[in-house]
């Protein structure tokens, strides 16, 4: 089992190990233990360790003291005296200024329920001798050992030990699904719902931006058609070619200058396709800013959901294998 644990640990490190990252208005925790949180301010970014024994209030005071930013605040429905361990089970917000907020998304390591028995934790530390093991393996073993220690009498015979092993496995089988998967699955569903709403908002903004770009091109075409008709009337009806020839030259030069400016400004050729794309992008940026839409959050959530699904899958596979080992 230990060899399999080390294999899954190396696999988990390749796939999921990361530092705390800031992407737009979203922050992911590191996968180290204890996890780290990167707190972005306008002048710098700071990394802080989230110790599970700390309270939310103590963490806030630590950040304010080390950064000299009195506006920092953790936005959560939990009371200020709540422990960081409770905070890290679901998404929460941090406020770095009076107007700037960031969503913080927990990792699988912090969402799974951990055994409350101090004796179990000390026993696991002794077994693993400080070696790093996948959080999923550690949680599975911890819950089983918790049940085993509770079932063993102070002075146990061989039959008592066998009975305790069977009882611990039975209790573990009844409780492990809730303990391991409840919080991660709830967070996964919440992230999927949040992404769905963002994609709907994005589709609406893209649709309105495309309509605006088409409208601008139609207006530009209408202006060109009106100008063509007016120039034709002036050439063939009002003044004649001799009078209008210098004016047409100036108009052609004007459009050449507009095309040159467009290329220098946007690094694109001055043509219908690129103009439509430019109008759509500018309108998209205006609407996104007006409605508070975070385009980077879409990419962040897509990656977060994909990784969380894979982590839950790895945890589920390990749990099934571990339960099979216990029964053997």
What does this structure look like?
By secondary structure, the protein is of the alpha+beta class. The chain has a domain at 16-106: Ubiquitin-like (UB roll) (Roll), CATH 3.10.20. It is 68% helix and 9% strand. It is built from ten helices and seven strands. Strands 1-2-7-6-5 form a five-stranded mixed beta sheet. A two-stranded antiparallel sheet has the order 3-4. A hairpin with a 5-residue loop joins β6 (92-95) and β7 (101-105). The longest helix has 81 residues, at 158-238. The two termini are 12 Å apart.
Question: What's the helix and strand layout?
Answer:
Elements (H helix, E strand, L loop, with lengths): L1 H15 L4 E3 L2 E3 L7 E5 L4 E5 L6 H12 L5 E3 L8 H4 L4 E4 L5 E5 L2 H4 L6 H11 L6 H17 L6 H81 L2 H26 L5 H20 L3 H33 L1
Parallel strand pairs: 2-7
Antiparallel strand pairs: 1-2, 3-4, 5-6, 6-7
Helix pairs in contact: 1-10, 6-7, 6-10, 7-8, 7-9, 7-10
What is the CATH topology assignment of the domain at 16-106? Ubiquitin-like (UB roll)
Q: How does the overall form come out from the CA principal axes?
A: elongated
Helix content: 55-70%
- Strand count, sense and closure of the main sheet? 5 strands, mixed
Class inferred from helices and paired strands: alpha+beta
Round the Cα radius of gyration to an integer and report it: 31 Å
Low-pLDDT sequence parts: 1-17, 322-328
Distance between the termini: 12 Å
* Series of H and E elements: HEEEEHEHEEHHHHHHH
Roughly what fraction of the amino acids lie in strands?
5-15%
The side-by-side strand order for the widest beta sheet comes to 1-2-7-6-5
Mean pLDDT: 79
CATH architecture of the domain at 16-106: Roll
Assigned CATH class of the domain at 16-106: Alpha Beta
Q: What count of helical segments does DSSP give?
A: 10
User: Count of DSSP E strands?
Assistant: 7
Coiled coil: 298-325
Family: Belongs to the MCU (TC 1.A.77) family.
Membrane topology: Multi-pass membrane protein
Transmembrane segments: 217-241, 247-266
